[in-house]
C-alpha cells in the first residue's frame, strides 16, 4: 500500500507523505471568551487544531492591538477566517501564506491585551495549539513594533458569513403518528424531536439554507420513504433527530451516529431488495443492472460520502462542546440505522439526549437550551458546507 501511494505521488507530482504540511481543522478550532469582561473586553483563547505539531510564534502589535501567530509548515487551506467559531468576538481576523513555509494569522483585538500563555499539545493524530490572552490597561500594553507586519494588508472587517451556494438539508424528526417513539413523564420522543426540527428548520432558512423535513406534523413516515424524500430533494446532508430512552443509570447527553462501514455489503443487499433501481444512487439509473453491480456502485458512492458524514459529525461535536452542551462520553459512534444507509447522501443520526434522563428531558423542554443546540447544529452545517465547497473547488481545478 505504501509503495502504491509513493507511485501515485510521483505520477501526480504531489509531495510525499513525510513532507505534507500540517492542516488546519477548522471544525476543531475556535476563538472563545474564557471569562467575563466586567465592562471591558473579555479574556480570550485562540484554539487551533492541526493535523500535526508545528514550530510557531505568537506576539502582539499595536495601532490597532493585534495578535499575530506564525506557523511553520502549516497549510490553512481554503478555510475562511470568518468561519472560525467565535470570530464575532473580535473586530477582524485574517490569515494566509507569509514567507516560505510560514503561514500567519492576524487577530485584531477589541482592546489592549497581554499573552498569558502559548503552548502546543501534540496528540496521536492532531495537535492542539492554544494562545491565552488577558485584557490589560492601556499603560500595560507592550506590543512589538508594527514593522513586524510590514507588507501585509490590514485585517478585513468581518461581515456575517453568507452561503457560498444553495445548500439543501433534509431534517428527519424520528417516529410520528402511531409510532410515538420513547415515552417518559407524559412526553413522547416523536413530539419533542418535531418541535426541535421545526426550530432548526427556521434557523437554517434564516441562513439561506433550503431546509426541508420528512414530516411537518405528527404523521407516520416509513424509514425507506425518509431516505427517498432526501434523494428526491437532492439533499446535500441528511440529519435524523431522535431522543431515545436508556435504562436507568446509563450515560446521558447528545450522541451522533454515523454509518458503520463494516455493514456496507449487507446494506447494499437490503437497499437493492427494498428500493426501486432509480432510488439507490442519485444521478445513476440502475434499472436493469444486477445486484452485484448495484452493490459495487453503492460501495463506490460510500467511499465519498462516509468521510463527509464523519466530517460533519466532527463539526457538530466541536460546536456542541464550544457551546457547553452536554454530550455522551463517546459522542460519535458507528451505527447501522436504516436512515444512515443512503450511499450517496452524507447522513448522521443525532440523539439530542435521552427522554428517560431527567436532565436531558428538561433540556428538550427548555426553549433556551433548544436555541443553543439549534445554533450549534446550524453552525456545524454552515461550516461543513464551506468545507465541502472548498473540497469540490479543489477537485475541479
TrEMBL record:
One GO CC term, this protein: outer membrane-bounded periplasmic space
A GO biological-process term: peptidoglycan catabolic process
EC number(s) reported in the record: 3.5.1.28
Pfam families registered for this protein in UniProt: Amidase_3, AMIN
GO molecular function annotation: N-acetylmuramoyl-L-alanine amidase activity
Keyword terms, alphabetized: Hydrolase
Catalytic activity entry: Hydrolyzes the link between N-acetylmuramoyl residues and L-amino acid residues in certain cell-wall glycopeptides
Residues in MurNAc-LAA domain copies: 227-382
Designated name of the protein: N-acetylmuramoyl-L-alanine amidase
Amino acid at each position: 500500500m505504501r509503495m502504491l501511494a509513493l507511485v501515485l505521488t510521483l505520477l501526480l507530482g504531489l509531495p510525499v507523505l513525510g513532507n505534507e504540511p500540517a492542516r488546519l481543522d477548522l471544525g476543531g478550532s475556535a476563538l472563545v471568551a474564557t471569562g467575563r469582561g466586567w465592562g471591558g473586553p473579555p479574556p480570550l483563547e485562540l484554539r487551533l487544531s492541526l493535523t500535526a505539531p508545528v514550530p510557531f510564534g505568537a506576539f502582539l502589535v499595536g495601532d490597532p492591538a493585534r495578535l499575530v501567530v506564525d506557523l511553520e509548515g502549516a497549510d490553512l487551506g481554503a478555510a475562511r477566517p470568518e468561519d472560525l467559531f467565535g470570530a464575532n468576538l473580535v473586530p477582524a481576523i485574517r490569515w494566509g501564506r507569509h514567507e516560505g513555509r510560514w503561514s500567519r494569522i492576524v487577530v485584531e483585538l477589541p482592546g489592549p491585551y497581554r499573552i498569558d500563555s502559548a503552548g502546543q499539545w501534540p496528540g496521536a493524530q492532531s495537535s492542539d495549539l492554544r494562545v491565552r490572552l488577558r485584557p490589560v490597561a492601556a499603560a500595560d500594553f507592550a506590543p512589538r513594533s508594527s514593522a513586524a507586519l510590514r507588507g501585509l494588508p490590514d485585517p478585513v472587517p468581518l461581515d456575517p458569513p453568507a452561503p457560498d451556494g444553495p445548500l439543501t438539508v433534509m431534517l428527519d424528526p424520528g417516529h410520528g403518528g402511531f409510532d410515538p417513539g420513547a415515552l417518559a413523564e407524559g412526553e413522547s420522543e416523536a413530539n419533542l424531536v418535531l418541535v426541535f426540527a421545526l426550530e432548526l428548520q427556521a434557523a437554517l432558512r434564516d441562513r439561506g439554507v433550503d431546509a426541508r423535513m420528512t414530516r411537518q406534523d405528527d404523521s407516520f413516515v416509513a424509514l425507506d420513504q425518509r431516505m427517498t424524500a432526501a434523494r428526491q430533494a437532492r439533499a446535500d446532508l441528511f440529519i435524523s433527530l431522535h431522543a431515545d430512552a436508556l435504562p436507568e443509570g446509563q450515560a446521558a447527553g447528545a450522541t451522533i451516529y454515523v454509518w458503520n462501514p463494516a455493514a456496507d455489503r449487507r446494506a447494499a443487499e437490503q437497499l437493492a431488495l427494498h428500493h426501486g433501481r432509480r432510488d439507490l444512487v442519485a444521478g445513476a439509473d440502475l434499472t436493469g443492472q444486477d445486484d452485484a453491480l448495484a452493490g459495487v456502485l453503492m460501495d463506490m458512492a460510500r467511499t465519498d460520502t462516509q468521510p463527509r458524514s464523519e466530517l460533519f459529525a466532527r463539526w457538530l461535536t466541536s460546536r456542541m462542546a464550544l457551546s457547553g452542551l452536554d454530550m455522551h462520553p463517546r459522542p460519535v459512534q458507528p451505527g447501522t440505522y436504516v436512515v444512515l444507509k443512503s450511499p450517496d447522501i452524507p447522513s448522521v443520526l443525532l440523539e439530542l439526549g435521552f427522554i428517560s434522563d431527567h436532565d436531558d428531558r428538561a433540556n428538550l423542554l427548555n426553549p433556551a437550551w433548544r436555541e443553543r443546540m439549534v445554533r450549534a447544529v446550524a453552525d456545524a452545517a454552515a461550516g461543513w458546507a464551506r468545507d465541502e465547497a472548498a473540497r469540490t473547488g479543489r477537485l475541479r481545478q
